[in-house]
Amino acid sequence: MNSTKKHGKRALVTGGAGLIGSHITDLLVREGWTVRVFDNLEPNTHKRGKPSWLNPDAEFVQGDIRNRDEITAALRDTDVVFHEAAYGGYMPGIAKYVDVNSLGTALMLEVIREENLPIKKIVVASSQAVYSEGAAECPQHGLVFPEVRPVEQLRRGDWTVHCPVCGGETRSVPTPENAPVGGETVYGLTKMDQEKLVLLWGKQAGIPTVALRYSCTYGPRQSIFNPYTGVIAIYCTRLLNDLPPVLYEDGEQTRDFSFVEDIARANLLAAETDKLDGLPVNVGSGKGVTIREVAEQISEALGIRIAPQAKGEFRPGEMRHLASGTARIQAAGYKSQVDLATGIGRYLEWIRAQSDVRDYFSEAETILRAKGIVHSVSK
Known about the structure:
By secondary structure, the chain is of the alpha/beta class.
């Protein structure tokens, strides 16, 4: 008996040509699902048009999440929606973030309700960017949830996360889902919109929904054209062009990195279990790694030893530390399988096979400064 007959589930993967969406598609096809990919092939990410990695066993529909007719047609004959479509990264646009992420998601939910479509579950891509700052431990006050560091503090070159009660120095600890959310960037704000819209709508409609808060996701197919997203991709392209990786602050900020295939497995789990229904759920390794260490690991793996460069610049609203508390998803049966060194190795194998690996970051960096997204420390 083949898996298609056994399974028979039908999925729509919005943003299904992208890094995460395409890996979700591959996994679902392997598991016997019937899959439709819906993607507008955003030029910032897909500079060369339709990517070669689109799964031939999935239906591909080019369309825009903001177009009512296109998303209505794409949603038909679907059991589970994996909603990955989003405009992302540290881009200077504001209206487009809100238009694509917030309004696009709202339109999709409205269509499902108004057309009375028999959707059985929605799994939406949220992000660790919904947190203002990672959880911390104060020697005096225990677990605390610091607010975003003030710009005035960062201008002084003080990168410390202070206790919100006593102002003392804190130590980073894994961030649980009940930490305050706010979103201190436009992207983070719209990811919060997406997850809250989907979870609230699910309760009202009586349809199970799950919001997966991804940690920093990387792996093969991460766009080498988009200079605003994906620190591992940016550092690879910089080094391959004999340029130093750029560190904001002092490079000692930490992030939790997840290999894209682990993120795809988390999506499949969320679709198939009811243990996560109605909840925001962190997906990550549970470990924080410094950005400097990531740059050094990539440099070592490539054999291109160019020291990373810290220019005394920072991005307002950026958190200092974030490691995902993963107790909730682990209790549902999830475990990350690909460690950072292995994942970087697999990404480098892929990027070496790409032609014209240009540095798009240098030009973008100038734009980010001009738009006030990157600031300098006061002299």
